[in-house]
C-alpha cells in the first residue's frame, strides 16, 4: 500500500506541475506577480513541487480563476479608455462626421438640462 500511495503522490505532483507550466506559459506578460514570467517559468521547471505551489500562491495574476469565466486574466489588461479598443468602433473619416456627432451631443445635453430644470421646478413647487 505505501508504494501505491507514493505513486499516487507522484501522479498528483506531475499533474500539478503540468498545469502550472501551461498556466505560466499562457499567462500574458506583465500580469504575473513578484517575478517576471520567464522567472516563473524557470522556477516551475526546475522545482516541480515547490515551484508549482509558489506559482499558485505568489505568482499567478490576482484575478486568475481555475477555469470557466475566471480565465479573463489571459486577455490583455484593459486600456485607460476601453471604448477606443471596442471592435467595430466607428472612427470619423472626415471632419463633417465629427461635426454632426458633436451637434447631436450638444442638442441632447441641452434637452437633458431642460428636463433637469423642469424637475427642479416641480420639486420646489
From TrEMBL:
The keyword Transmembrane helix applies. It comes from the Bacteria. Residues 67-98 are annotated as: Disordered. InterPro entries: CLS_N. Residues 16-60 form the Cardiolipin synthase N-terminal domain. It is found in: Cell membrane. It is a multi-pass membrane protein. The chain crosses the membrane at residues 7-26, 38-58. Keywords: Cell membrane, Membrane, Transmembrane, Transmembrane helix. Its main location: membrane. This is Integral membrane protein. It comes from Kibdelosporangium persicum.
Amino acid at each position: 500500500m505505501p508504494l501505491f500511495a507514493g505513486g499516487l503522490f507522484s501522479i498528483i505532483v506531475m499533474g500539478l506541475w503540468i498545469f502550472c507550466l501551461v498556466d505560466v506559459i499562457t499567462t500574458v506578460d506583465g500580469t504575473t506577480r513578484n517575478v517576471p514570467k520567464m522567472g516563473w517559468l524557470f522556477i516551475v521547471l526546475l522545482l516541480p513541487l515547490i515551484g508549482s505551489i509558489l506559482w499558485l500562491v505568489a505568482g499567478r495574476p490576482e484575478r486568475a480563476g481555475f477555469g470557466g469565466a475566471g480565465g479573463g486574466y489571459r486577455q490583455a489588461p484593459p486600456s485607460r479608455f476601453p471604448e477606443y479598443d471596442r471592435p467595430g468602433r466607428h472612427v470619423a473619416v472626415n471632419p463633417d462626421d465629427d461635426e454632426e456627432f458633436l451637434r447631436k451631443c450638444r442638442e441632447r445635453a441641452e434637452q437633458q438640462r431642460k428636463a433637469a430644470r423642469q424637475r427642479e421646478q416641480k420639486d420646489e413647487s
